[in-house]
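Budget justification, computational time. The allocation requested in the original proposal was used primarily to generate structure tokens for proteins on the priority list. As evidence of use, we reproduce two of the resulting records. The first is shown immediately below.
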Amino acid sequence: MDKSINFSHRMGILVHGVIGYNFFKHFIFDVNYSKEYIKIYPPESYTYRKCKKCYQAKLYLREQKKKPFIVAQYLLEKRLIDITLLLDMGSGSSLGLFNNKKKEII
């Protein structure tokens, strides 16, 4: 662990480490917010099941950055454009979107 990075001070709680790409790339995660659990499965033992109330999305891990991205669509005036969003569930913020004049996202 890099001692120059102090997450505990920022988060207000003791943080022992950060789980990143090297862990996530090997498993399937089942997150249930209402029951407050996360289950971790090896891909070969996981059985996909359909859920009418669930939202499923594919995450793409970019090798060079090793961060989870999701491809979504943004309604710009009357047309949809594809956008790539970085998931950062450990940041403590709900959502962060930034203007991108090149892609006309305001």
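The second record produced under the same allocation is shown here.
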Amino acid sequence: MNKNLNVAIAPKDSTFQVRINSEIKRAVEDIYAKTGMTLTDAFNTFLQQSLNVEGLPFIVTKNSKEALRAQAVAMLMLDLKRAEERADAEGWIDADDLERELGVID
């Protein structure tokens, strides 16, 4: 797969049509309009993200909400671990250590 594909600048030489319920179409157009995007812009963004990750740009399971939450928690925990490792490596001190150094607590 060519990882240099860019949906925004690629020549538009093909057409894709999809049938959709008119009420659903209006609802999603309203959602995207709030971000300054058209339905076409949103679809092209979906395509670009699919190219970027080489798959669907979101998790699809029976329990997508739980899977996304678990993924977010895992990413947060990784960030916290990295921050703790950086703090240890750079000799940072925590609030309790600071209070001890200032003589606020024993």
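A brief technical remark on that second record: The helical segments are 22-33, 39-53, 64-90, 95-102.
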